[in-house]
TrEMBL record:
This is DUF3817 domain-containing protein. The lineage of its organism: Bacteria, Pseudomonadati, Bacteroidota, Sphingobacteriia, Sphingobacteriales. The keyword Lipoprotein does not apply. Its main location: membrane. It comes from Sphingobacterium ginsenosidimutans. It comes from the Bacteria. NCBIfam families: integ_memb_HG (TIGR03954). It is found in: Cell membrane. Keywords: Cell membrane, Membrane, Transmembrane, Transmembrane helix. InterPro entries: DUF3817_TM. It is a multi-pass membrane protein.
Length: 99
């Protein structure tokens, strides 16, 4: 499940970057509001899946609630979403080494 969550975290971060740095400038500087509608819908889809996966992972792996809050808050900041993906990668590698 962590591998799937890691991929969702990565795509959520990418969609945030695309929304803020591609779609919004297209809307406000080029007059193309459809860019935000499309990018916003894709981003919203990944946000919902991210939150669901965050809740499922928190329950499944008995994460401290502060870790879940930290991941959620990091997902709100465009660049910090990539940190969540890297942190999950470390956790997956740590679990692999224990096996």
């Amino acid at each position: 499940m962590l591998r799937i969550f890691r991929q969702i975290a990565l795509w959520e971060a990418i969609s945030t970057i695309c929304l803020f740095f591609i779609a919004m400038p297209l809307k406000y500087f080029a007059g193309i509001p459809e860019a935000v509608k499309i990018a916003g819908s894709i981003h919203g889809f990944f946000v919902v899946i991210f939150v669901v996966m965050l809740i499922m992972s928190t329950v499944e792996y008995k994460w401290p609630i502060l870790k879940a809050i930290k991941y959620f808050l990091a997902s709100l900041v465009p660049i910090l979403g990539f940190w969540v993906e890297l942190d999950l990668k470390k956790e997956i590698e740590g679990k692999r080494q224990k096996s």
